[in-house]
Amino acid sequence: MTRIRHEPVAPTRTQWLASGAAIDAHRHDGHQIVYAGRGVLAVTTGTGTWIAPGTRAIWVPAGTAHAHQAHGELELHLVGLDAGDNPLGLDEPTVLAVGPLLRELILAHTRTPYDDGPERDRLRAVLLDQLRTSPQEPLHLPTPTAPQLRAVCEILRTNPADDRTLAALGREAGASDRTLSRLFKSDLGMTFTQWRTQLRLYHALVLLAENIPVTTVAHRCGWSSASAFIDVFRRAFGHTPGAHRPR
């Protein structure tokens, strides 16, 4: 990530982005909560990508260089916090579950970003309380650093439906499956199967945001059937792919 723009204040606002639009790499002196009221949001740093549909928000710590990518028509809600105001105690990007109350608090807070009245202070206090109890979600696609691992991951990024074994992929990348298995755990902190599932879910969210039919999404992302895809999706996000389609 080069030419990183510095913004002293993490803004609080609502912003609309067209599908495919991006906000280039930048960083804030304060923390930020990033939420997609509509569409799917991807936040990318030098270490990976975090993705969030409408039931998730992304916590971006102060000083973290990050870029935004819109998938589908994106209604982006940004909540800025002072660097010393960290209700989560987190120093790395994290995906958080957003329940109905927290969603409404975020929407209300970003509708009136320049209101400094006591009602807004109370609203903010409740929002922070809700954040403290929000479950963290492992919706993170880490970026590999080892050259052999990067080669394998790029093959799968190009075609998430590629169902070859790690040994077969390793032959193309010039590495044994044992070496690659070790690298997945040491470099990315997850197994090959876990990383590929995360990648497929990432692509599924993108395709669903583009209003692609569920069965087509399942096959494009490597699931053998729509029912298998729906089962994995429900376990990851708490609802079916059909409920995720654009409103």
Task: Compose a concise summary of this entry.
This protein is of the alpha+beta class and 247 residues long.
Helices, strands, pairings?
Layout: E1 5-7, E2 13-17, E3 22-28, E4 31-45, E5 48-52, E6 56-60, E7 66-81, E8 94-97, H1 100-111, H2 118-132, E9 136-137, E10 140-142, H3 147-158, H4 166-173, H5 177-188, H6 192-209, H7 214-220, H8 226-237, H9 241-244
Parallel strand pairs: 1-3
Antiparallel strand pairs: 2-7, 3-7, 4-5, 4-6, 4-7, 5-10, 6-8, 8-9
Describe this structure in words.
- With about 250 residues, the chain is an alpha+beta fold.
- The protein has two domains: about 5-140, Regulatory protein AraC (Jelly Rolls); about 145-245, Arc Repressor Mutant, subunit A (Orthogonal Bundle), CATH 1.10.10.60.
- Helices cover about 40% and strands about 25% of the residues.
- Strands 1, 2, 3, 4, 5, 6, 7, 8, 9 and 10 form a ten-stranded mixed beta sheet that branches.
- Strand 4 and strand 5 form a beta hairpin.
- Helix 4 crosses helix 5 (about 175-190), helix 6 (about 190-210) runs antiparallel to helix 7 and helix 7 (about 215-220) crosses helix 8 (about 225-235).
- The longest helix is centred in the last third of the chain and has 18 residues, at about 190-210.
- The two termini are about 35 Å apart.
